[in-house]
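A reminder from the course coordinator: this example appears on the midterm review sheet, so study it carefully.

Given structure:
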């Protein structure tokens, strides 16, 4: 498990930013980025995100090459004043398991998705909508273990980045 101390202003970005740009590497070596809602898990010092079963390209890319990056650069609706822009470079893993129950990812849905997109609670609180949209809750879970974290104070990319190398303890 990695063991490192994250500066408070960086951890605030992980907890408060609504989205980040998640990049994987395509078969031909091209980086591909998608906006995602990542959940920081301080107890394991990893990030958890999901993708719908119907949109597995991220998973295909990760299985070919687990090196990924996450750029937290847009503070919209975070409530943070002049937060740093944060780049996380790490390794991703996806188990060979499809999560089919919203209950299994309850914390992710409630504390990440519904808190950031309150209207989604309306759809998921209705049993009929959950039944009709069960395909949406079929998820592949992606775990990202950071290797390097770089951040630019106040989101100013013209300034030199600060950097934290992550030491993995076995």
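Designed residues:
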């Amino acid at each position: 498990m990695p063991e490192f101390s994250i500066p408070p202003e960086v951890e605030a970005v992980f907890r408060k930013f609504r989205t980040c740009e998640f990049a994987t590497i395509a078969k031909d070596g091209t980086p591909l980025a998608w906006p995602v809602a990542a959940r920081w898990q301080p107890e394991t010092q990893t990030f958890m995100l999901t993708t719908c079963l119907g949109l597995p390209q991220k998973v295909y890319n990760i299985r070919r090459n687990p090196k990924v990056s996450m750029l937290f650069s847009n503070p919209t609706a975070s409530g943070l004043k002049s937060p740093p822009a944060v780049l996380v470079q790490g390794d991703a893993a996806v188990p060979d398991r499809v999560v089919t129950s919203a209950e299994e990812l309850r914390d992710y849905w409630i504390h990440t998705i519904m808190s950031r997109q309150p209207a989604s609670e309306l759809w998921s609180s209705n049993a009929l909508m959950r039944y009709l949209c069960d395909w949406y809750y079929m998820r592949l879970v992606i775990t990202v273990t950071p290797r390097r974290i770089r951040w630019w104070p106040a989101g100013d990319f013209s300034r030199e980045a600060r950097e934290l190398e992550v030491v993995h303890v076995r």
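The helical segments are 8-16, 57-64, 106-116, 119-124, 127-132. The chain has five helices and ten strands.
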